[in-house]
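User: Here's a chain of 96 residues. Predict its fold as tokens.
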Amino acid sequence: MNQYYTYILASSQNWTLYIWVTSDLIKRIYEHKNWIYKWFSSKYHVNNLVYFEVHNDLNEAIKREKQLKKLNRKRKLELIEKDNPTWNDLYENLIW
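Assistant: Prediction complete.
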């Protein structure tokens, strides 16, 4: 069964946020951290994984991505801080 991820990256606590979807979270975050592509994230140095959700259906992941992007900034910060109050980079936990 395939898994899909809706994720949020941050440049630092309470700063620039980036929301997207992927089917390979570890690979995608690696690409962000190493500026493999000239994405928004590389331009604004957004490479700390602060939040993610797992979905079994790509359409659900995309639907959730759109919902998250529509939230106002305050609600996005509340969502992140609910599960990650110290804004740790969750990528380290994925690769160990």
